[in-house]
Amino acid sequence: MRSTKRLICMLLLFTMLVSLFTACGSEKPAADSTTANSSAAANSSSTAKPFDDTKINFIGFGAMWTNEIVANLDKFKEETGITVNFQQLANDQLSNKIAVSSAAGGSDLDVIAFRPLQETLLFTNNGWVEPLDEYISKSPDFDINDFFESGKDICAIDGKMYGIPLMTEREIVYYNKELFAQAGITSVPKTMDELMEAAKKLNNPEKGIAGIAIRGKGSDAVTQFSGFLRAFGGDFIVDGKAAINTPEAIKAFQFYGDLLKNYGPAGVANMGWTETQSLFTQGKAAMRIDADSQYGFALDPKSSLISDKVGYFVLPEGPAGAKPFNIVAWALGISSGSKNKDASWEFIKWSLGKEMDVKTALAGNPSTRNSTWTNKEANKNFPADLVEVINQTNPIGVGTDRPFMINVGEARTVIGNVITGAILGKDVTAMANKANEDFQKLLDKEAKK
Amino acid sequence: MILKWVDKNLKYIFTLPTIIFVLAMILFPLGYTLVLSFFEWGMSNSVPMKFIGLENYTSLFTDDRFLPAVGRTFYFSAVALFFEVLLGVSIALFLNREMAGKNIVKTAFLLPMVATPVAVGLVWTLIYEPTIGIANVIVKAVGLKPLVWLGSPDTALASLMLVDIWQWTPMVMLVVLAGISSLSTEPFESAMVDGATKWQTLWKVTLPLLRPTIFTAILLRLIDVLKTFDIIYATTQGGPGFATETMNILSFRHAFEYFQFGKASATLVIFFVIVLSIAAIFIKVKNKVEVDY
């Protein structure tokens, strides 16, 4: 009796241990074999598909660009043999995921999408992204000189390129033509005062319609606020010093706060771009200020009730002129821990190459290539009135929409807190003074490094 | 020979997986967090960790956001816990009777608890949406002024408490209900024989007998409610301003938005010590108060 019991125990233990070890072990040979394959494949580059059976992981964001690329992944596999495993995340989650994986070596990431203004400094500083110059010089067909100069600049540190620009974005005003007609507004606002005036006329809380909707949630709002800050003559950093409590900056905070406090939607202090977008597309906001790259959502009859009533105009001018941002919103890079760097470059070369760039432009992506913008055929799907606003914005656009620094996350929280405070009607001067002190401390800390 | 050895050490061998699991999943992260809290580190692969002693801790106490976050964590927990226990016990007592559709009601009460917290957060964001959400429709229907809920620092934290109460009252109810059904019938019979009213039975017999159960429910909820993260992150991420920034949210932002792992770890170490001491005090009190009948 006792011995059978013991036997059962032993068997149980044995199976447990065996399963434990096989579970641990099975991963390894598989990983080895893929690296072996890819290096073998790289050596025999004479075959038609040098990357047969190579798998790469690509993590990115949700946009029209992404949809078009994902729809064409099969074709890419046919051409190169590379299987792309795509994972889509929201902006902040994407950044978190890259950080966590990279800190752990980054071998589970190959191609990564990142926001150059937010992350180039951080990622290069931490050694998470691979310099691309060597790959670029090996690929003359890719024609790196075709990309906007400003776009390349923002992806480069100390003369080395760490990302390839993917998408540009400009700050514009969207408006609801029907609500404008109802309010008797015949011409679009040209100055900040006219913007305030129009928002006042359009605001109709009884019907649940806000005059204007812009981001009000602290750090999210900083990028949209940049256009106001500069229109009033201020900036985040002036001569290397924090400058968010200058008289100009305080005026801008006050204006942005008053605009949204008086004529913004209820609860705007907790809104990001998705919330203002749904209000606008549901006809609950007469105007909306955000990036032009989101126009597709407003025009899609499946998600928008006002798809046939959308108009656009250039961000109005303040005392210091009209200063909308015109930035490179996204770029592609290669994780420095990647085991498939050649295959990853192959993917970047394909997805941002001239041919695909025209395709994604047709799908609605504002390109970063000169050749695509001068190609009439590529831009035929953009609404004509939007192209006009883009063309007016391009020459006056400012290349950054947030303080360009390593710890931009914390800086955005500090500045965003003043924006939210202004919307909630708090003492802007006191908040701006305090925030400027904290902002300066962040800048000092980076200077020390 | 080997068999004999195995036989002798069977108790160790069988507990080994558990020990490995506890070491890897609980003790290691705890220890690592403690170590990190003495360093400055931005998750960098090229810039090594820098030992800075207690600086992370001292910097927290001069941080404008830390102490309010501590206060908020306790305020949120105390209010939510109070209502969860009050409502949970009341509903359990109410349901402890024969009535038609009792099981349906019980199941319905459990639904919020089984829903994924992030989904709950997203659904409540829609409910609370001031322009198109249903919360304001209801508020207006009963003749009150519409609120902005999560959009104002005055109401955001209270709105989140409401979500927590909605979601976790059923758990207290479930535990208490189980406690009631395990009570022996004798005390109730003798109370009836002695001519006690229903009210007297409730206060003098049922509740005292349920005391250990209620204490257990409070302890479980207390630890959970202090840790609340998901519904806050899914709705406000600590905003508007810093109005709903609890210790967990603050720590998350320090770590993954500002890449200051040391400061984030220091916050969590302080948090861990606080939660541990509260739980210890609570268990002491529980043991003292509990009497066998």
Automatic annotation (TrEMBL), chain A:
Signal peptide: 1-25
Record keywords: Signal, Sugar transport, Transport
One protein family per Pfam: SBP_bac_1
Domain of life from the UniProt record: Bacteria
Record bears the keyword Signal: yes
Family matches, as InterPro entries: Bact_solute-bd_prot1 (IPR050490), SBP (IPR006059)
UniProt name for this protein: ABC-type sugar transport system, periplasmic component
Lineage: Bacteria, Bacillati, Bacillota, Clostridia, Eubacteriales
UniProtKB/TrEMBL annotation, chain B:
Keyword Transmembrane assigned: yes
Membrane topology: Multi-pass membrane protein
Domain of life: Bacteria
Signal peptide: none
Domain annotation ABC transmembrane type-1: ranges: 70-282
Keyword Calcium appears in the UniProt entry: no
PROSITE patterns with a match to the protein in the record: ABC_TM1
Biological-process GO terms, alphabetical: transmembrane transport
InterPro entries membership: MetI-like, MetI-like_sf, Sugar_ABC_transporter
Record key words, sorted: Membrane, Transmembrane, Transmembrane helix, Transport
Main location group: membrane
Bilayer-spanning residue ranges: 12-39, 74-95, 107-127, 165-184, 264-283
Pfam families: BPD_transp_1 (PF00528)
CC per GO annotation: plasma membrane
Intracellular or extracellular location(s): Cell membrane; Membrane
Protein family according to the UniProt entry: Belongs to the binding-protein-dependent transport system permease family.
Name listed for the protein in its UniProt record: ABC transporter permease protein
